[in-house]
Amino acid sequence: DPPARQQPSAQHEGEKRPGGCHRGHHRKAGLDVAANTIGVSLEELRTALRDGRSIAQVAQSKDVDPQKVIDAMVADAKEHLADAVESGRLTQAQADEKAERLTERITDLVNRTGGPRGGRRAVSTTA
């Protein structure tokens, strides 16, 4: 029988994961960058996501091009990967693997409605 999968608990919330990151750290950092780029507070962005809006929709409502948000989030993620390599938490090969589809994943995140784990994608009204 395979070992039972352990569910994360509140006790492990601040625990470091392989690669040296904290659980939830990257998601929060990405949302911080998105909020700052859009010009809203992190709480305003979280509320909009909980209400079913995408990061792209929030950006457009503030006259910010969603691509600007994507670019900022990708740059931030690449900086975190470089820091992890420099500090020895990741090898360059591991960082390269993580960076491979970074732009695609962040673009999907920015366009997804229903929050970071919502799973529904926004329908683009532009061609």
Task: Explain what the structure shows.
The protein has 127 residues and is mainly α. Helices cover 54% and strands 3% of the residues. It has helices at residues 25-38, 42-50, 55-61, 66-86, 92-99, 102-111; strands spanning 112-113, 120-121.
Brief descriptors of the model:
3% strand, disordered N terminus, elongated, 6 helices, disordered C terminus, 127 residues, 54% helix, mainly alpha, two-stranded antiparallel ribbon
Based on CA inertia axes, which overall geometry fits?
Answer: elongated
Q: What is the share of helical residues?
A: 40-55%
The number of distinct β-strands equals 2
Approximately how much beta-strand content do the residues carry?
under 5%
Following the backbone from N to C, one meets helices and strands in this order, namely HHHHHHEE
- Stretches where pLDDT falls below 50 for ≥5 residues? 1-26, 118-127
The value of Rg in angstroms is 16 Å
Structural class: mainly alpha
As laid out across the biggest beta sheet, the strand order is 1-2
With helices defined by DSSP (H or I, 4 residues minimum), what is the helix count?
A: 6
Distance between the termini: 51 Å
